[in-house]
Design goal:
Layout (H helix, E strand, L loop, with lengths): L2 E6 L4 E3 L7 E6 L10 E2 L7 E7 L5 E6 L4 E8 L2 E9 L9 E9 L2 E8 L3 E8 L2 E5 L15 E6 L5 E5 L4 E5 L5 E6 L6 E6 L5 E5 L4 E5 L5 E5 L10 E2 L8 E6 L5 E5 L4 E8 L2 E8 L10 E2 L8 E6 L5 E5 L4 E6 L2 E6 L3 E4 L1 E2 L2 E12 L2 E2 L3 E10 L10 E3 L3 E4 L3 E3 L2 E3 L3 E4 L5 E8 L3 E4 L6 E6 L13 E4 L3 E3 L3 E10 L4 E3 L4 E8 L12 E7 L10 E2 L1
Parallel strand pairs: 1-30, 2-31, 30-33, 31-33, 32-34, 33-35, 35-36, 35-37, 36-39, 37-40, 38-41, 39-41, 40-42, 41-43, 42-44, 43-45, 44-46, 45-47, 46-48, 48-49, 49-50
Antiparallel strand pairs: 3-26, 3-29, 4-8, 5-6, 6-7, 7-8, 9-10, 10-11, 11-12, 13-14, 14-15, 15-16, 17-18, 18-19, 19-20, 21-25, 22-23, 23-24, 24-25, 27-28, 28-29
Amino acid sequence: MKNFKCCMAFVLVLSASLSASYEVETVAGLAGAYAHTDGVGTAARFKRPGMMSIDNSNNLLVADNDDNMAVRQVTTTGGIYNASTLFYANNVFGGEPLNAICQYIVNGATTYLTTHQYIDLMQWTKSGGTYVSNTSLDAGGNGYPSGHDAWGLVIDSSNNIFMTSAAESKIYKILPNGSYSSFVQNTTLDGLTGITIDSSNNLYVSATGRNTICKITPAGVVTVIAGLAGSSGSSNGVGSAARFNSPWDIDIDAEGNLYVADRGNNLIRKLTNNGGIYTVSTIAGLAGSSGSSDGVGSAARFNAPTGLAVDRFGSIFVSDTNNSTIRRVFLPVLEIDFTNGAQLTAPITGGLKFAGTGDCTFLGSATAGIEINQGNIKVASAIPFGVWGVEMTGGSLEATAPMTFPALTLISDTTVKADTNNVHVATAGGSGELTLTGLDGSEVIYLDAIASAGGVNSAANPVHLSMLTNLHANVGTFNALYLDSLPGSNVYGSGAVTASEVVVGVNIPAGAFPGTLTTQKIVLGSHSISQAVIAN
């Protein structure tokens, strides 16, 4: 990862718009080295990596095709990428080609879904340390080959599965109970491959056979938002003025922009969303030129890029199929080195890394993820973390205004200071403990979905809450919830709160949880807990 460094000391204010171009780096595999080997970086080997997705822990899942038929996982810590094999999907009907992979959480249990050329949709569940398949979600019916040439997979907010059929110009909808139906079938959707979904459950697909990108509303209304049916090319432009050449996988970022692996052109394209009008630009690669070079923008080369996925920090991962590598397309990180009393006021195009000592007030914004390495970062506006994730590798974060964290990843134990302001944490993962402190009793802390097996909210890395009045656990599932110091507190959720262990550091009054508190263990010490309904 390349960093631009900026040094600030004492009340120095940087106020500017800092922009950069997209860069490309190879993070796993070695171009031309066609094999199957788990390992770190270029020591790993892939055969024909295809469609990909991001799981709930921000790990990359890759369908590695040909004789492998392997589901590969790529994790990262501190910029080091490690490729491993989750399971093999080659025991399905004699080894049908593996097209796509995604994670599927069912009643708190992690399973995986794969699509194949003929048998469509398979679900994989861990049993005795090994993932085994079943055909209960096979849209072909009865678990037999059906010839739909299923490719893309995406899950909506109600846990419904949407699957593209390249052979039928159709999108299937599969309910959590396994029943299925044709969601939409339209000649506009010719040769469907990639699919993604936005926060309003609108679908976006690559109509590869027509070289277009389409939007499908929850009501099934289809609109072509970029490209012109039947016309191939590489032109950038607005809507139908743009051209594609076999667009394949597609994904969406936190701001509603779309990214496409333009396989036939060896390009990575961006569709910038401006009120529903999409402007297509090329962010990496050169049309008509194949290769494996890393570099900035058009200096980079690809060879049949197929899979594409955007992580919560704005990095775009690409399976460079004919190079047998995994590539990362990213905006470089601006590193801020500071001493006490610094202030940064700037809209940053790209990521941002704070690595100083003392306090630094941040009044700007960033268009990708923010990393806090050391120091205490004071944030006086909700803008910086409105859509992008925050990664804490050290230091602390102090919210001096109501704050929203759509994704908070803790690499080490981290303190977030709320300072009389509401804090909203949408998701949290990583391997550190989260402690919320500095509260005076007037705040409301919103924890929407703070659960990550083995990471934040695990038994080893619990959530600590100190000096807190109101906790909203909207999806209140905690592996270990430590109520450290909550005098006169109300702890409640919109529904039931579940924690495998609750460690009480203060008396918890009656009515603290309006719903059922479900737990297997309560550690009271010398304290008391009064609750109308406690289940185990």
